[in-house]
Design goal:
By secondary structure, this protein is α+β, with helices and mostly antiparallel strands. The chain has one domain. It is built from three helices and two strands, in the order αααββ. A two-stranded antiparallel sheet has the order 1-2. A hairpin with a 2-residue loop joins strand 1 and strand 2. Helix 1 packs antiparallel against helix 3. The longest helix is centred in the middle third of the chain and has 13 residues. The protein starts with a helix and ends with a strand.
């Protein structure tokens, strides 16, 4: 039986380009990798990060836009 840590490393290599296109940062990858190393047989590991934020305030109104990226690695039932 293959351990989750090994499967995680395989998936990270396979989807590296797609994750870059979405906006997953190196810090997020390291957080998830540390979680996988700390508990290698866990069901899931995740990290969230705000990659862009816009905030504008004028005359009693506030406009705020946030781009948030979530990285979740979990074992599926398939």
């Amino acid at each position: 039986m293959e351990m989750n840590k090994e499967k995680y490393e395989e998936l990270m290599l396979r989807f590296a380009k797609e994750m870059h296109d979405v906006g997953v940062t190196d810090g997020m990858k390291k957080i998830v990798e540390a979680q996988a190393n700390r508990t290698p047989n866990s069901v899931s590991c995740s990290a969230d990060e705000v990659t862009r934020k816009f905030y504008y305030q004028h005359d009693g109104y506030v406009i705020e836009a946030v781009q948030k990226v979530s990285l979740v690695v979990k074992k599926s039932k398939s």
